[in-house]
C-alpha cells in the first residue's frame, strides 16, 4: 500500500474524527469524574472498536450486516439503545451525586475493564455498536485499497492510521480536560457536566435510531 493512499484516507476520515460524538463526550466526562487515566481507557476502547470494524469489513461480515436491512436495523437499534441507556445512567448519576467539592473519586478507575461502567467498555461499545463507524470501512476504506490483492493487512494499516489520528484528537481533549480537572471535579460542575453528558448521549442515541 502506498503512503499516498494512507494519506488520502486520513484526509477523508479527519472531518469524521473531528465531529463531536459519543467518544469525545465520554472522554470529557470520564476525565472530569476520575482523571486522565479514565480518559485514556475510553480512548483505548474506542480504537479497539476501530480495529474490530476494520477486521469485520476485511472478512466480509460487516458487509452482510449492512446488506441485510433487518440485521442492520437490529444493530442500529442496539447501538442507539446503548447510547440512550448510557445517557440515562449519567443523568441518574448526576441526580444522586453527593460528592464533596474538590474530592476526587478513584474507585471506578480501579474497576475491571469488563465491568459495564468501566470507561474502556463504554468506549468500546460506543464505537462497535455504531453502524456509521462500520460504514467507514465498508464504503470509504475500500476506495484506497489496491484491487485484486488481499485486503486484511491493508485494511488494518488504514485502521492503524485512523487509530493514530483518533488517538491524537481524543488525547488532546484528555489533556485539556485534565488541565481543567480541579474545576470540573467540584460537586456543582460535576453534576452539571453529568447532566449535559447524559443529554448529549441520549440525543446521539435518538439520532442514531432515527437516521
TrEMBL record:
Subcellular location: Cell membrane
Primary localization class, coarse: membrane
Keywords attached to this entry: Cell membrane, Membrane, Transmembrane, Transmembrane helix
GO molecular function: amino acid transmembrane transporter activity
Pfam families the record matches: LysE (PF01810)
Annotated Gene Ontology cellular component terms: plasma membrane
Membrane topology, as annotated: Multi-pass membrane protein
TM spans (from-to): 42-66, 73-92, 155-180
Cross-referenced InterPro entries: LeuE-type
Statement: the UniProt record of this protein carries the keyword Lipid metabolism: no
Keyword Oxidoreductase applies: no
Signal peptide: none
PANTHER family assigned: ARGININE EXPORTER PROTEIN ARGO, ARGININE EXPORTER PROTEIN ARGO-RELATED
Protein name as annotated: Membrane protein YrhP
Organism phylogeny: Bacteria, Bacillati, Actinomycetota, Actinomycetes, Micromonosporales
Amino acid at each position: 500500500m502506498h503512503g499516498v493512499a494512507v494519506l488520502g484516507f486520513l484526509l477523508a476520515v479527519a472531518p469524521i474524527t473531528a465531529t463531536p460524538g459519543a467518544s469525545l463526550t465520554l472522554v470529557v466526562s470520564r476525565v472530569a469524574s476520575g482523571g486522565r487515566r479514565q480518559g485514556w481507557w475510553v480512548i483505548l476502547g474506542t480504537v479497539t472498536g476501530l480495529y474490530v470494524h476494520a477486521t469485520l469489513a476485511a472478512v466480509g461480515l460487516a458487509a452482510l450486516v449492512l446488506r441485510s436491512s433487518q440485521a442492520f436495523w437490529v444493530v442500529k437499534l442496539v447501538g442507539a439503545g446503548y447510547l440512550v441507556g448510557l445517557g440515562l445512567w449519567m443523568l441518574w448519576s448526576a441526580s444522586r451525586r453527593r460528592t464533596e467539592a474538590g474530592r476526587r473519586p478513584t474507585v471506578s478507575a480501579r474497576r475491571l475493564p469488563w465491568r459495564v461502567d468501566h470507561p474502556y467498555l463504554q468506549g468500546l461499545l460506543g464505537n462497535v455498536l455504531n453502524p456509521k463507524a462500520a460504514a467507514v470501512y465498508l464504503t470509504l476504506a475500500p476506495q484506497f485499497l489496491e484491487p485484486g490483492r488481499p485486503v486484511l493487512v491493508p485494511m488494518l494499516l488504514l485502521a492503524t492510521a485512523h487509530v493514530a489520528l483518533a488517538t491524537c484528537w481524543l488525547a488532546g481533549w484528555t489533556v485539556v480536560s485534565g488541565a481543567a480537572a480541579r474545576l470540573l471535579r467540584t460537586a456543582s460542575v460535576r453534576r452539571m457536566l453529568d447532566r449535559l453528558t447524559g443529554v448529549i448521549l441520549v440525543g446521539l442515541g435518538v439520532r442514531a435510531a432515527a437516521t
